[in-house]
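Sample intake sheet
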Amino acid sequence: MKMYLSSYRLGNNPQQLVGLVGDNKRVAVIANSIDFGNDPQRRKEGVQREIDDLAKLGLQPEELDLRDYFEKPKDLEKKLSEYGVLWVRGGNTFILRRAFKESGMDEWLKSQKENKELVYAGYSAGVCILSPTLKGLELVDDPNVVSEGYDKETIWDGLGLIDFAFAPHFESPGHPETEAVSKEVEYYKKNGVEYKTLHDGEVIIMKS
């Protein structure tokens, strides 16, 4: 599985993402990290922004709402087979982790580690979820946030698909979370957690 791990949105050189994509240009846009809000219109506009940005690159994006697949992992597995790219946007990492678990997305994604045709792309929370642990992220995201239909239990295990903690928006003037991320990085230092920081605009590309 190829990975395009961005600090914020598409980053400074989105053509690098296009270069990773094979023949299947269909993109599943996963936005469950913003399910905590109570403004459905704002959520809809946020999702549309992601779709518009990806479409401008010549890709074929559409939203895949994991809530439609809670407790239906086989249905989700069938649906995911249609896509060549997953685009997982930022928001709250803890509610995104709940959505991954309740839909079976977490186990499916782990099973795709050797799939060289699949691109996992995203930013902020969409990357943080890949880390071995989510501990430290509570300094940035509220771990107790839930929404209708979600289990209230906080999950502290990440997916372990990358071997470091991801700290986006680091020293990124203008981003509201940059100060909290500095505290997150201090936590990693104090606790001996391997981590990588990214300024907004920067991207890590990984090819298995």
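Comment: The CA atoms of residues 73 and 104 lie 5 Å apart. The radius of gyration is 16 Å.
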